Amino acid sequence: MFLKFTIALLACTWGFSCAQDISGPEEDTNAPAAEEATREVPLPDGKTVPKFEPLDEHRIKIGNVIVNHKERTVSFQAQVNMKEGILEYVCCMPNGKLHESLLVTEADPLHISLGMTLLKFHRFEKFFPVRDENFEWLPFTEPKPEDYADSYVQIVMTYTENGREQKSDFSDIVVNSQTRKGLNPSDWLYTNSFFYEGAYQASLSGEVISIFASRTSPINYIGDFHDGVNDTGWIVNPQKNLPLGTNVTVTISQKPVQPKQ
């Protein structure tokens, strides 16, 4: 049932119509086993969409991303990349700005956004000014909060500490450098990235979840905009940090939008 849902939804609602659907090469049975081969993380091209791999009745895997239709979640694995310092990102790929990203992941932003699209997550793509093909600014009207009220997402990080499962919405780990108050976990907005010359730009920049709002990132923290600024300094909480390399699971969800009466 879910597989039929996936195929139908991909055919009719995938908003990234200019992306190329390029299936990965056939498995080489003569290739060395994963543990024997030198492991290299291929850089994303912003175009490749791997074959969907059904995991069970409710879940499919897209690259390194798991889409759960029943729970309406998109999740992926990551590792702690910073335990101190200034942050501009919650999560980047290895080709992103790792010197200011809390987490690093091999999950392609294109596949993450595809998963959210399959689950019909609402997104708001008019939050930032944009340029035309000649790099001229297009007319822009600053959006009102009610314009993107249905496009917020919830992000939770799950990890193991002292043998026990822990969860964080990042409000205890990412804090204001001056006030030491945590970021507001209710201020994550699915703004989506964009395609240029056929490539999803978040994949090329390596941006996955941005604290310092970026047009290229598919998910942005807009709490600073609510305060009238977007230059607040955010840091790893000195009182709450995790060892480098700690394995975590990042799960993204969106509350169903109630139909208007």
From TrEMBL:
It comes from Akkermansia muciniphila (strain ATCC BAA-835 / DSM 22959 / JCM 33894 / BCRC 81048 / CCUG 64013 / CIP 107961 / Muc). Transmembrane segments: none annotated. InterPro entries: YdjY-like. The keyword Nuclease does not apply. Residues 1-19 form the signal peptide. Residues 26-48 are annotated as: Disordered. PROSITE patterns: PROKAR_LIPOPROTEIN. This is Lipoprotein. It comes from the Bacteria. Keywords: Signal.
